[in-house]
């Protein structure tokens, strides 16, 4: 399922959401220049083994402390499909969450959501995964964006999301669209935990942590109610 737009308006231009999208694309362009992007991923991605070793394979070349890698990895991607998909979700759902939280609060909350998602991914990998799984670089804005989705799920469950499903276009209530998305990510996260190569270097289980963080904390930081859906 691919979201195309929602029907929930905002009060003002989502400056922070646009800025985050620009920052992610700027980092992606940087990845494409100079050294191969795979080298950048190895160097600046987040490794669970950097929290608690040992590390094996390419992770031995990693030099960033875990707390730096947890931040830099939030703005890195592993291909055009990866970044375009993430930024589409951020654009559709981020503007309404930003509108409800306010710009500064939303920016800080977004970063914390990404860190919380990474923390859960690292915890699960270290406790239930192998040494090889802990040595796979985790990258992507997906964890932070999952926090945005969890927040939207709570704030605007009755909004409609125009969705491309195979060859059909359907408007789906956000409650169902995001609920199905969450369950699917939980499945993918378990798959990536036992077979890390299937995740393509993306911390899929962090999607679950990010979504739960967003759903559980948005009411604590909400500044105002979002505008009602247009119809």
Topology:
Layout: E1 2-6, H1 15-32, H2 37-44, H3 66-72, H4 80-101, H5 103-128, H6 131-134, H7 142-155, E2 160-165, E3 168-173, H8 174-194, H9 205-221
Antiparallel strand pairs: 1-2, 2-3
Description:
With 231 residues, this protein is mostly helical. 59% of the residues lie in helices and 7% in strands. It has nine helices and three strands; from the N terminus they run E-H-H-H-H-H-H-H-E-E-H-H. The protein has a three-stranded antiparallel beta sheet. Strand 2 and strand 3 form a beta hairpin. The protein is globular, with a radius of gyration of 17 Å. The model has no long low-confidence stretch (mean pLDDT 90).
Lateral arrangement of strands in the main beta sheet: 1-2-3
SS class = mainly alpha
| Quantity of strands, as a count | 3
Order of helices and strands: EHHHHHHHEEHH
Oligomer: single chain
Number of helices: 9
Strand content: 5-15%
- Estimated radius of gyration: 17 Å
Shape: globular
Distance between the termini: 22 Å
Largest sheet: 3 strands, antiparallel
Offer a quick outline of the entry:
By secondary structure, the chain is mainly alpha-helical.
Comma- or semicolon-separated keywords:
231 residues; mainly alpha; 3-stranded antiparallel sheet; 3 strands
């Amino acid at each position: 399922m691919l979201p195309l737009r929602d029907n929930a308006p905002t009060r003002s231009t989502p400056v922070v959401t646009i800025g985050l999208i620009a920052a992610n694309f700027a980092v992606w362009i940087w990845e494409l220049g100079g050294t191969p992007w795979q080298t950048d991923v190895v160097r600046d991605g987040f490794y669970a083994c950097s929290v608690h070793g040992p590390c094996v394979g390419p992770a031995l070349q990693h030099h960033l402390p875990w707390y730096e890698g947890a931040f830099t990895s939030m703005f890195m991607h592993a291909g055009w499909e990866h970044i375009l998909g993430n930024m589409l979700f951020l654009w559709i759902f981020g503007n309404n969450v930003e509108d409800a939280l306010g710009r500064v609060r939303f920016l800080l909350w977004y970063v914390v959501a990404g860190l919380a998602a990474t923390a859960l991914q690292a915890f699960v990998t270290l406790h239930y995964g192998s040494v090889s799984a802990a040595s796979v670089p985790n990258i992507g804005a997906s964890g932070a964006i999952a926090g945005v989705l969890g927040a939207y799920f709570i704030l605007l469950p009755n909004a409609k999301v125009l969705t491309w499903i195979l060859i059909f276009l359907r408007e789906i209530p956000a409650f169902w669209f995001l609920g199905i998305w969450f369950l699917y990510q939980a499945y993918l996260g378990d798959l990536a935990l036992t077979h890390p190569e299937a995740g393509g270097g993306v911390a899929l289980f962090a999607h679950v942590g990010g979504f739960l963080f967003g759903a559980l904390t948005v009411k604590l930081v909400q500044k105002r109610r979002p505008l009602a859906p247009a119809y």
